[in-house]
């Protein structure tokens, strides 16, 4: 009887190409997006349990002073070389075929969350950006102040976003052109030199009190004939990584989240730990692994340097090939990865 009370439909941007055969669109149950077939929302009981529980690594975390190194300067913005530059947390600058992309820009402190690292340049120096890509609408990925700054300094900017994120974007900048996509859809605003696809992630949405899972979440693939770059967004380990590899073949460069995974009873449905991120990378048959979503904000119970140490151990054991851990602001030239 309960199942009959569910209102289920599938939605996508009907004007965009869907690359997965017979894919009906993202599943929406009673107005809320699902991870595949599962509608997931972090329960208040688990959040309360986390807040009331002692962190078994509390002392270790207090003593861990790790923070990512920062390479200061804005030469990467002026360069004409294709590259990937980490800006901290999940924020990246990517130049591909001369087109400049800015992914999940979070350039300032967040409410109740202070950055543990600096940016390599001042936010106002991020100019000549063609496209802003927003994987989902959590505030550590879609930040109002950061978006306003980027829009102010880049009048030519267009945004590539998930389904139903447009209303949030309009509330920040009503004049910013944008295009929404569902999973397995190809954006058509980008010049033909680069293909950009919106792909699955196993995550959830909440930005306000009443909007649980009202906006989609996902990942991006940027592709040229020479190279493919996958940005995983926020995601738990799930079957979509194998599915992406089945559709596109081996992925040359994978930008993978490796932080905010403890306590596992709360985080395992939202984020990957380093071992899971490496498993996903191997399912993608990745060539180069660049970690993200660690070291910039204190979001969880693990010590800040633990993801780095675990990745180094996994690589030393021969279970991870192609690990690159750039400093914030350090360009990774794509010509060196092809």
UniProtKB/TrEMBL annotation:
Domain Metallo-beta-lactamase: 101-294
Coiled-coil segments on the chain, per record: none
Membrane spanning stretches: none
Entry-linked InterPro entries: Metallo-B-lactamas, RibonucZ/Hydroxyglut_hydro
Pfam families: Lactamase_B_2
Highest taxon listed in the record's lineage: Bacteria
Residues annotated as signal peptide: none
PANTHER family in the record: N-ACYL-PHOSPHATIDYLETHANOLAMINE-HYDROLYZING PHOSPHOLIPASE D
Protein's name according to its UniProt entry: MBL fold metallo-hydrolase
């Amino acid at each position: 009887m309960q199942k009959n009370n569910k209102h289920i439909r599938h939605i996508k941007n009907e004007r965009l190409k869907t690359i997965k055969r017979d894919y009906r669109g993202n599943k929406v149950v009673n107005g809320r997006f699902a991870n595949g077939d599962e509608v997931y929302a972090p329960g208040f009981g688990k959040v309360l349990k986390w807040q009331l529980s002692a962190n078994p690594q509390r002392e270790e975390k207090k003593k861990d002073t790790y923070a990512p190194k920062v390479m200061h300067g804005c030469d990467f913005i002026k360069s004409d070389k294709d590259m990937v530059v980490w800006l901290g947390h999940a924020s990246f600058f990517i130049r591909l075929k001369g087109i400049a992309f800015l992914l999940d820009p979070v350039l300032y402190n967040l409410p109740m969350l202070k950055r543990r690292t600096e940016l390599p340049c001042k936010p106002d120096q991020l100019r000549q950006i063609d496209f802003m890509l927003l994987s989902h609408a959590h505030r550590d990925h879609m930040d109002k102040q950061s978006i306003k700054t980027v829009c102010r300094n880049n009048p030519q900017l267009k945004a590539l976003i998930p389904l139903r994120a447009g209303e949030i974007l309009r509330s920040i900048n009503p004049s910013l052109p944008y295009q929404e996509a569902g999973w397995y859809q190809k954006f058509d605003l980008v010049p033909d030199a680069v293909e950009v696809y919106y792909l699955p992630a196993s995550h959830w949405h909440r930005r306000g009190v009443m909007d649980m899972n009202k906006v989609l979440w996902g990942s991006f693939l940027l592709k040229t004939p020479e190279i493919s770059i996958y940005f995983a967004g926020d995601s738990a380990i799930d079957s979509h990584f194998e599915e992406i590899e089945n559709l596109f073949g081996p992925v040359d460069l994978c930008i993978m989240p490796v932080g905010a995974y403890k306590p596992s009873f709360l985080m395992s449905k939202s984020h990957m730990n380093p071992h899971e991120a490496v498993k996903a990378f191997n399912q993608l048959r990745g060539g180069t692994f660049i970690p993200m979503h660690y070291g910039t904000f204190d979001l969880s119970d693990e010590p800040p340097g633990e993801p780095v140490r675990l990745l180094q151990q996994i690589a030393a054991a021969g279970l991870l090939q192609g690990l690159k851990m750039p400093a914030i602001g350090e360009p990774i030239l794509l010509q060196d990865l092809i």
